[in-house]
């Protein structure tokens, strides 16, 4: 459970995040919005990757600015957009670092969790290869696996689908949806593609100019009238075969 | 047997063989006294220096997230020299411990300065980081040379700066154990350094405070650089090429890489020293010259090898 | 590299036009020269004037060489903080010279005509540089930053060798080499002045036809080629010009590292990035700094030999400042 209250963050003189107060509970929540809306910055604030200029963030009741970072790492895992200069580690070694906050991958339990994460992301065939020799998509999945291996209740992901082929993007979203449903995880994803959000998310937080423009279920947020105002363009929303389809222009 | 274990065993064997050769080469007649007072200390010093400098190079590369940095190309050694010069100017007769402390402090300031610069360079320009490092080192070096010239200490300073094991006898090298101890600490904290290498965000995400680990890394680099400056002088390129070569086969995961980096570092230093002693026997070529040339050549091979970058848009 | 296009406002303040600025720089340079020549003239005026005139000419040559070569290098690498001093040219030159001292012996060296010696060294150096950069840039088609790093490594390697060779020298020979190794603007060799000056001017004139291509280079390789620029040829031409000019200035006054950085960036601030303006501006600023600086230090403060140190220090400070504020491109 994530509770934010009046979160503010500046970049230079602009307010990237402007007094955001939103509660995010278990399930899959997508953050959408135009470029510069503050989505990534809000995620970074929640994940204590940047210092807050105002407001508070509580994760599972813990204040992220006051709690030790090691303890926080056992409760929340965060995946920012991928570093393009990764160091040279094998996939298995990288994912094993997900156990670092728990003291490293020493016990058999640890190793089982690591193997599990590798398998979940379909990386068994490349587990001993170095990540700088993999494709961008495989590397991305390796980092997701590392985040999963942290075994946390809360998982934050910043545009994790960027480098992925449609097949792996679909697989990942299904995986995340499954984890949210079965393990009761709180998963927050910043997404660029609204269609994906509409398809997989339980709740949507729409941001614009650093503020939350609307927050609610898919039905409440994915409407032609709201999206048109959010993105300042023509859009139509239809329902085809039970799914919401967003038609731009 | 895993890849890493094979390399480790091979490394131990290689180092042992080279060490034996090193002990046996020399001008004087080999007897018990020479062995204990000169040959063995020299060989031990070579091994300690190789281990310490190679591991330090690896730490520096993880901490800056750049493959092409090491203390001698980023101002640490030059800053240590400057501090040493300051001591020589004040009182050349100061005990070696004082000189060592000064050199360590100098290296500390030098490294912190470089890291401050490196943080500001856009991540994309990974080749710019070592370039800036070399310019920064050149600046400090020029200042040092200038002051040394004024104080008429230039030739003496050059003598300190040139990596040279010929003067190593029992009683003159024990500080190197300190450097090796620092490298050992680095190995113990290996996982932290690897996590730092993943990036600051990833490190925080995994629950590591990057600043503490960074501080530890800086101290280790400074201690090794400072101690080396006052005992044997600088070994150029070692900390740069050894981790790069090892990384190709074993990766950057420190826990696994450190022993192999240490062994290869020791082997390279031993080999270069042996070459320096044999090429124009009985005259010795200082090891820093041998390493400067050979190490530079290897570095060029690494840079220009099959994976070098083709022309890109500026 | 230009952050924005030149101002399009129809009415510009007359003094902000690059041509006007260059004219002002020219006047300032002339004033600096006059001051240097005429201030505090001792009794034997004509002798002192001859000496000073020689120093001024030397400084002018160095200013042109360093200013132009730095601007060229920064264009070709799309970078504001690099200088030719770091590409290893000076180390190559030093190695040739120190090897010469060792092999031939200092006495014989001092006896031979410096012009002949210098000519040989220059040909050797230019030859090595051209071959090296042709191989790296044309044949291997490497990224320019990587080539700079290669130059740096070669420089470091050569310096290790040179340091060692210096240790082999006896004190007399060491003194000869010391003269070669440290920049000094006051001990300029008369015999070298003419051939160096001619060469620098020739190199400068040779790049006039490619000035506009160099401007286009700032837009990036692909864009420049799309606009019809013969990218490889232009860059090689620039590199050769840089090598020649660095050889000239190193022969005259020794190795200079950050001076070029100082004058090039000052030139960009004053007249922008069009090479027809920035190169002359850099040269003029260089002249003002060197000649004016020498006047202030020698006549004003009495520190005759400190100039290169002060300049390098200021240039180094600027370098740090540029990196820290992120203005590396």
Give the mean pLDDT of chain C: 79
Helical segment count of chain C: 14
The CATH homologous superfamily of chain C is named ABC transporter involved in vitamin B12 uptake, BtuC
Radius of gyration computed on alpha carbons of chain A = 18 Å
Features:
heterotrimer; B: 314 residues; mainly alpha; ABC transporter involved in vitamin B12 uptake, BtuC; disordered C terminus; C: 329 residues; globular
What does this molecule look like?
- The complex is a heterotrimer of chains A (249), B (314) and C (329).
- Helices cover 33% and strands 29% of the residues of chain A.
- Chain A contains 9 helices and 13 strands.
- In chain A, the strands form 3 sheets. In chain A, strands 7-8-9-4-10-11 form a 6-stranded mixed β-sheet, with helices on both faces. In chain A, strands 1, 2, 3, 5 and 6 form a 5-stranded antiparallel β-sheet that branches. In chain A, strands 12-13 form a two-stranded antiparallel ribbon.
- Chain B has a single domain, classed as ABC transporter involved in vitamin B12 uptake, BtuC, CATH 1.10.3470.10.
- In chain B, 73% of the residues lie in helices and 0% in strands.
- In chain B, helix 1 packs antiparallel against helix 2, helix 2 packs across helix 11 and helix 11 crosses helix 12.
- The C terminus of chain B is likely disordered.
- By secondary structure, chain C is an all-alpha fold.
- Chain C has a single domain, classed as Orthogonal Bundle (ABC transporter involved in vitamin B12 uptake, BtuC), CATH 1.10.3470.10.
- The radius of gyration of chain C is 20 Å and the shape is globular.
- The chains are: A alpha/beta (249), B mainly alpha (314), C mainly alpha (329).
- Chains B and C meet through helix 5, helix 6 and helix 13 of B and helix 6 and helix 14 of C.
